């Protein structure tokens, strides 16, 4: 097992992911972990992550330095490297200028870590730099701006990289990490999703004890996989709640019920709250207002439902890692709030439910792998994400029953064509957007004056960035033909060719 100490870098989950991709189990723990706790976990190696702070800031994260003396192999990355250099008697200088971006890595000595690589590119993101290494360490690589870009103390099995090996911008980063994991730490590539599932189930069982859990089901893969894990852990003490907010796609509630019954054998409560949502949304046009209203009503309805279940103490959520990053801003982090993803913010504290988020270290593709491991249907596993606020954020302007019904028809045609042409798995998401403006057309020799449907199809690995899908023109032509012919009220279809950034995936 490799233990990652989280000094707060945005990339720390990526470190864990790289380790797990090499089939080695990996846990992430906060820096306040004690040496005794580390000893109890028996890690084969420790990676100290990067962090946003300067080592000299008052609030900069610290850890028990006794961990550095336990004889466990250690790899410090960026802040982690500076932390261990300083703690072991080296010197770190504070610099006003940050070195950020690509740099050419010049290798001086291959040592244990750089065996498989030649001079290569690496990704830097730091302000402070190591000036002098502690005794017993030698510098093995440099860049133009960083004289100690990699260092090692083979005797103590302690290594440091000033650059980030975990990001894609360091092309040989994984090779370097592998040398640490396999050669230095002696790990075996034997960890699998099966083990992750077994461990999660065990952890949930331990945490919940004999109490009850409630889970809000969205119909997507994340909440379904979460439900499946919790169900496996505590059986009938799990109750799943699905709220029909009236903003769902065609047949969605029914399909969900069927799929759920087949895949997850727990109790499900279907709550119809269409009217509440739609009346609160009437005449609201501002995207953030829509999101906030939907979020608030969701919480009210969910809370009322939770109160009907006696003795429920836990809330299970399908939060995955990208949600955690993107919602950081919602919790007071430095980045700007782009959209209020209400289902990440969670429920109000007054409900006093303790959270269970077994997927919060996983990326979407890992969640899918886990779902397959748990035996869920492929159809469910490969469902495209669907936002909590549903079609309300795909209808520009005010949401009405009429517009919902139009959009549902358009969306069903689009998804049918995507499925028929086997594009489902190639895309992150495909959906339709209804524009509130009308344009002129001609159908059967008659003038039409109707709404526009926009088609959005994107590819992505984790929704943090996305590109518009290069769907074949013939497929787009068929989609457009069918929409305009089959949906009365739409006379024009356009295709969205914006990537993220600068666009977002959803239009609102
Ligand atoms: P954006 O539009 O922010 O979307 O680029 C990124 C991914 O998140 C989905 N999305 C949401 N999912 N609740 C959700 O569960 C939300 O409020 C929400 N808003 C956007 C979106 O569909 C895309 O996959």
UniProtKB/TrEMBL annotation:
The Gene Ontology CC terms held by the record are: cytosol
Do you know which Pfam families this protein is assigned to?
GATase (PF00117), GMP_synt_C (PF00958), NAD_synthase (PF02540)
Domain GMPS ATP-PPase residue range list: 191-383
According to its UniProt record, in which pathway does this protein act? Purine metabolism; GMP biosynthesis; GMP from XMP (L-Gln route): step 1/1
Q: What is its EC number?
A: 6.3.5.2
Q: What PROSITE patterns does this protein map onto?
A: GATASE_TYPE_1, GMPS_ATP_PPASE
Q: What class of enzyme is it?
A: ligase
Known Gene3D superfamilies for this protein?
3.30.300.10, 3.40.50.880, HUPs (3.40.50.620)
Mind telling me which InterPro entries this protein's record contains? Answer: Class_I_gatase-like (IPR029062), GATASE (IPR017926), GMP_synth_C (IPR001674), GMP_synth_GATase (IPR004739), GMP_synthase (IPR022955), GMPS_ATP_PPase_dom (IPR025777), NAD/GMP_synthase (IPR022310), Rossmann-like_a/b/a_fold (IPR014729)
Is Glycoprotein one of the keywords? no
Q: Where does ATP bind?
A: 218-224
Active site residues of this protein: 78 (nucleophile), 164, 166
Return the SUPFAM superfamilies for the record: Adenine nucleotide alpha hydrolases-like, Class I glutamine amidotransferase-like, GMP synthetase C-terminal dimerisation domain
**What task does this protein carry out?**
Catalyzes the synthesis of GMP from XMP.
Q: What is this protein called?
A: GMP synthase [glutamine-hydrolyzing]
């Amino acid at each position: 097992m490799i233990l990652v100490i989280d000094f707060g870098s945005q990339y720390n989950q990526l470190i864990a992911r790289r380790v797990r991709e090499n089939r080695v189990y990996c846990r992430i723990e906060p820096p306040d972990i004690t040496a005794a706790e580390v000893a109890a976990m028996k890690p084969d190696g420790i990676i100290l992550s990067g962090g946003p702070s300067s080592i000299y800031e008052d609030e900069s994260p610290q850890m028990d330095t006794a961990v550095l003396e336990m004889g466990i192999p250690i790899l410090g990355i960026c802040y982690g490297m500076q932390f261990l250099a300083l703690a072991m008697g080296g010197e770190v200088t504070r610099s006003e200028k940050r070195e950020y971006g690509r740099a050419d890595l010049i290798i001086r000595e291959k040592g244990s870590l750089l065996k498989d690589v030649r001079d290569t590119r690496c990704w830097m993101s730091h302000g402070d730099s190591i000036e002098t290494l502690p005794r017993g360490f030698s510098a093995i690589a440099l860049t133009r701006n960083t004289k100690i870009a990699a260092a090692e103390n083979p005797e103590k099995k302690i290594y440091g990289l000033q650059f980030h090996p975990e990001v894609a911008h360091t092309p040989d980063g994984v090779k370097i990490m592998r040398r640490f994991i396999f050669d230095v730490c002696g790990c075996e590539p034997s960890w699998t999703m099966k083990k992750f599932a077994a461990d999660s189930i065990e952890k949930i069982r331990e945490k919940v004890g004999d109490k009850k859990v409630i889970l809000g089901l969205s119909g997507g893969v994340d909440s379904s996989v979460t439900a499946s894990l919790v169900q496996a852990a505590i059986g009938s003490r799990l109750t799943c709640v699905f709220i029909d907010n009236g903003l769902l796609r065609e047949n969605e509630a029914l399909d969900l019920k069927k799929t759920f019954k087949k895949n997850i054998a727990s109790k499900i409560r279907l709550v119809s709250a269409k009217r509440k949502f739609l009346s609160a949304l009437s005449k609201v046009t501002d995207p953030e207002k829509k999101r906030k209203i939907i979020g608030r009503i969701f919480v009210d309805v969910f809370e009322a439902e939770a109160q009907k279940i006696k003795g429920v103490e836990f809330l299970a959520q399908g939060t995955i890692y990208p949600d955690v990053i993107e919602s950081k801003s919602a919790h007071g982090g430095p980045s700007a709030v782009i959209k209020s993803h209400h289902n990440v913010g969670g429920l109000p504290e007054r409900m006093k439910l303790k959270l269970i988020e077994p997927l919060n270290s996983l990326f979407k593709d890992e969640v899918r792998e886990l779902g397959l491991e748990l035996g869920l249907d492929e159809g469910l596993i490969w469902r495209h994400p669907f936002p909590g606020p549903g079609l309300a954020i795909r209808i520009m302007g005010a949401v009405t029953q009429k517009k919902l019904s139009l959009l549902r028809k358009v969306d069903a045609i689009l998804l049918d064509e995507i499925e028929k042409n086997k594009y489902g798995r190639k895309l992150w998401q495909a959906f339709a957007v209804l524009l509130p403006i009308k344009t002129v057309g001609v159908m059967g020799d008659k003038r039409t004056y109707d709404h526009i449907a926009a088609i959005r199809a994107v590819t992505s690995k984790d929704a943090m960035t996305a590109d518009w899908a290069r769907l074949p023109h013939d497929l787009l032509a068929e989609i457009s033909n069918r929409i305009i012919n089959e949906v009365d009220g739409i006379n024009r279809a356009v295709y969205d060719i914006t990537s993220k950034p600068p666009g977002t995936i959803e239009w609102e």
